[in-house]
Design brief:
- By secondary structure, this protein is mainly alpha-helical.
- The protein has a two-stranded antiparallel sheet with strand order 1-2.
- The chain is flat, with a radius of gyration of 32 Å.
- It is built from four helices and two strands, in the order H-H-H-H-E-E.
- The N and C termini lie far apart (about 90 Å).
- The model has no long low-confidence stretch (mean pLDDT about 75).
Length: about 150
């Protein structure tokens, strides 16, 4: 059976355009463990509101989810670990400065290390120029205070 390049291309396009039946999309059966992990945020909130594990197990039995209290506790602990792992991976991917003594890798130079920007040129006629303020030297930087020195 010889297939040409054109036939392969046509087959590929046809297969790519196929959609699964609406009845089967999203209706795959989950294991008890997958179900508990999917429901974990809700079950954790129930625990915080005062529900005990046996009560939660009874509510799950009413909904057709057969699980023992010990197994439920184990699956909820696993869901918490998975959540922490995902959180740590996200933080590693995009660091942020939460502690003031640490510097972020992505922030660039620290404000004290860069000289102040020169003032923007005035635009428009008839705008009076503010009074010239004295310049103060700090090391190699020249500082122009926003408020006159006498008012500080």
């Amino acid at each position: 059976m010889a297939i040409t390049q054109e036939e392969v291309k046509a087959i590929r396009q046809e297969l790519n355009s196929l959609k699964p039946d609406a009845a089967t999309t999203g209706n795959q059966e989950l294991t008890v463990k997958q179900t508990i992990i999917a429901l974990a945020p809700t079950l954790e909130r129930m625990k915080k509101r005062g529900f005990e594990l046996p009560e939660i197990v009874d509510k799950l039995h009413d909904k057709g989810i057969e699980v023992k209290a010990q197994t439920l506790a184990k699956y909820l602990a696993e869901a918490r670990r998975q959540k922490e792992t995902r959180k740590n991976k996200r933080q590693a991917a995009s660091p942020h400065c939460s502690a003031p003594e640490t510097a972020c890798r992505n922030t660039g130079p620290v404000a004290a290390d860069t000289p102040p920007k020169p003032p923007a040129p005035e635009v428009g006629a008839g705008i009076s120029k503010p009074a010239e303020r004295p310049k103060v030297r700090y090391g190699t930087f020249e500082i122009k205070p926003d408020i006159p020195l006498g008012e500080l």
